[in-house]
Design brief:
Number of strands: 0
Helix content: over 70%
Radius of gyration: 30 Å
Mean pLDDT: 85
Order of helices and strands: HHHHH
Shape: rod-shaped
Length: about 140
């Protein structure tokens, strides 16, 4: 069961991660507010814009301070997706599909080898029954 957003963090790493996620959400919200302020810019909005930009800079500063306390490994491929402006969930979906396909291929190989082993043992029994009996005796004495 995955913890909900309201569950308390289990250790300080979770607390740091939660703090970073909160700061990112706040920065996105502030960026949205800055965008609206700029789009509807009037002379009276200048102080509001300045406050929002200051809040954004403080948020970035807080994130920069938190970054060293986080131990998060993000695959280069995921970063590439983000840099290209693509959704990282796309990468996850494609990765899962690729792993499922490789798993199916591997299971096919295992089934083929199992079948080959059974056929091989049957043929050995058919053509070399005495040698197999000797081998089985040797294996039980060891």
């Amino acid at each position: 069961m995955q913890p909900s957003r309201s569950d308390p963090p289990t250790d300080f790493h979770d607390a740091d991660r939660e703090a970073m996620e909160r700061k990112i959400r706040e920065a996105l919200e502030t960026l949205s507010q800055v965008r609206v302020t700029v789009m509807n810019h009037e002379q009276a909005d200048e102080s509001v814009l300045e406050q929002r930009v200051d809040r954004l800079v403080r948020g970035y500063s807080d994130m920069f301070a938190l970054k060293d306390r986080l131990n998060v490994n993000i695959p280069e491929d995921v970063l590439g997706y983000v840099k290209e402006g693509r959704n990282p969930d796309e990468f996850t979906s494609q990765f899962i599909e690729r792993v499922a396909s490789e798993n199916q291929f591997t299971n096919g190989k295992i089934a083929a080898l199992t079948n080959f082993k059974q056929e091989f043992e049957a043929k050995l029994q058919e053509f070399f029954p005495e040698e197999l009996k000797e081998r089985q005796k040797d294996e039980t004495t060891q």
